[in-house]
Amino acid sequence: MSAKLCKLFVGGLNVETTEDGLRAHFEQFGALSDCVVVQNQTLGRSRCFGFITYSAPEEADAAMAAKPHVVDGKTVELKMAIAREDANNPDIVANVKKIFVGGVKDHIEAENLTEYFCQFGAVEKAEIISDKQTGRKRGFGFVFFEDNDSATKAVLTKYHTINGNKFTPMFYCAFIKVFNVWKNPSLAVLLQVLWVTFFLSLFFLSLSRW
């Protein structure tokens, strides 16, 4: 998963910028394992964007932190590259900055979320949701980042552990979609039937192997 955090998109390039020129600029932040300026094969010229891949996520973070970048006299756009399997995720494309964190144990506080997730970027705030009447924690919370790149890094790094508490975050919009499905009685029943059918099939499959 860390490989996804090493690759950056560079847009708005000067049409004259070459791969050597792009590499020369961005290697000041770390070793590049790959550097590509995408070409228009028909016209034989640059399409004015490319991709760079660092050897470690920390080097990509250093390049991101040094924005804005000027390459061959042009200020370029630098952001995390979106992998093909994530390209259809509307939450990445829509610049979502808020993530949902589920399965939060009672000993986890909002400060723990802030302290942990700041490794992915600046955190505006974090909150753990409690029942308004009883004050008891409801087992989930939200983290608000200052930019989508930070939120995306946190979500793409699927497995997280805070003080022994393991969980997988998701974008807030994705959480709302799941929540709304479960609020819909007909869809909820259908999903439950599908889950039961799936686990029963696994059970009988395991019996058949004995």
In short:
The protein is of the alpha+beta class and 210 residues long.
Labels describing this entry:
210 residues, Alpha-Beta Plaits, 11 strands, 35% helix, RNA-binding, transmembrane helix
Please write out the topology:
Layout: E1 7-11, H1 19-26, E2 32-40, E3 45-54, H2 57-65, E4 69-71, E5 74-80, H3 90-93, E6 98-102, H4 110-117, E7 123-130, E8 137-145, H5 148-156, E9 160-162, E10 165-167, E11 170-171, H6 172-183, H7 185-208
Antiparallel strand pairs: 1-3, 1-5, 2-3, 4-5, 6-8, 6-11, 7-8, 9-10
Description:
InterPro entries: Nucleotide-bd_a/b_plait_sf (IPR012677), RBD_domain_sf (IPR035979), RRM_dom (IPR000504). The chain crosses the membrane at residues 187-207. GO terms for molecular function: mRNA 3'-UTR binding. Residues 6-85, 97-167 form the RRM domain. Keywords: Membrane, Repeat, RNA-binding, Transmembrane, Transmembrane helix. It is a single chain. By secondary structure, the chain is of the alpha+beta class. It has 2 domains: 2-81, Alpha-Beta Plaits (2-Layer Sandwich); 90-183, 2-Layer Sandwich (Alpha-Beta Plaits). Helices cover 35% and strands 30% of the residues. It has 7 helices and 11 strands. The strands form 3 sheets. The chain has a 5-stranded antiparallel sheet. Strands 7-8-6-11 form a 4-stranded antiparallel sheet. A hairpin with a 2-residue loop joins strand 9 and strand 10 (165-167). The chain is elongated and about 65 Å long.
